[in-house]
Design brief:
Blueprint (H helix, E strand, L loop, with lengths): L2 H20 L6 H54 L1
Helix pairs in contact: 1-2
């Protein structure tokens, strides 16, 4: 994990501990480790979903380009046929 990512997770864990302390609960080191593990797992899931969505976006973009090319070609063929 890179330094910036570690900082973001540390900040989230710290914020969660403050939230728990505000509600009269104690945040133990084990709790912090569990929270960090959950956040890392969620982050991995989000990265996997992002990769999936990027792949789908690329497919849709290519299909949109093919559709546009098709209509340009059909439009040209119809215009030349009529003139």
């Amino acid at each position: 994990m890179q330094g910036n990512e570690q900082h973001v997770f540390s900040t989230r864990v710290f914020a969660f501990c403050i939230y728990r302390r505000a509600h009269s609960w104690h945040c133990t080191p084990e709790d912090s480790e569990n929270i960090l593990a959950e956040l890392l797992a969620e982050n991995a899931d989000l990265h996997a979903r992002l990769a999936e969505l990027q792949g789908l976006y690329e497919k849709v973009y290519k299909l949109d380009q093919l559709k546009s090319c098709f209509f340009v070609t059909i439009n040209h063929e119809l215009r030349t046929l009529l003139s």
